[in-house]
Amino acid sequence: MDFSLIISNFLNPPVLFFFLGMLAVLVKSDLDIPAPIPKLFSLYLLLSIGFKGGVELARSGISQAVVVTLFAAIAMSILVPIYTFFILRSRLDPYNSAAIAATYGSISAVTFITAGSFLDQLQIPYDGYMVAALALMESPAIIIGLILVNVFTDRPDDSESIQWSEVLREAFFNGSVFLLVGSVAIGFLTGEHGWQTLKPFTQDMFYGVLTFFLLDMGLVAAKRIQELQKAGAFLVSFGVLIPLVNATIGIFLAKAIALSSGDALLFSVLCASASYIAVPAAMRLTVPEANPSFYISAALAVTFPFNILIGIPLYEYGINLLW
Description:
Elements: H1 3-10, H2 13-26, H3 36-60, H4 64-88, H5 94-105, H6 109-122, H7 130-136, H8 138-152, H9 164-173, H10 175-204, H11 206-224, H12 228-256, H13 261-272, H14 278-286, H15 292-322
């Protein structure tokens, strides 16, 4: 493997600021970011990538290749929770297994953005419609996770066990999914005119906001490390190995549907990442029996830093071998 890819990715300013945030916690610095700011930046990033994806979708049109890619993305967000659930069941109860499986079936928008930045550094082109794939992979994993809970636990099969209307509302209309899908739609409808109008906001400010957001993510991830002690070595190992498995499947699937190498990296990163916003919010609401320190800590303190430091260059290396 070309280790210069890892070094190049590590020396990306947003990635370095992520580890600066982790370092701040480890040395017990009083560095703190007021809670409303990360929330605002999170909304900004979702709006920007969604809008840009919609514009790119308008430019490329909804071709057969786009439809096939989106179908493959949805298929992975359904399959990943199913097979990871049975792996997790070897050590955990069905509630925690389903919550963690749903977390890993969904995606991390920030990991996706970091992969896009990595491709920009290498000057490898990719299609903006991959943002639509990102948006479509959020909700199916939540629904599959809740179906697994319903099938493999002793919950009474009545209307009080799971309020499906509330589950579906959370899956499709939670704030993150709603803003992302809405931004894709607005970008698609306004096209080039909309892009030129919002470019100073959605393009020029983007990497500055991403950098500040990752600084906060580093702070949060480092604070979660202690909680991993409750989960033990099994979950830590799972947080590293499952992304590798999912990325490998994603790479071969991307090859089968003839994606470009840039799109293949984004697709494999979507398959390998785990949600720490939308799915945890849904699981807290609908599966209170599951321990949040398991599914949030594994996704945020293990899989997220692994992907942005080692995973992304490693997946790129695998793609270069096949393309």
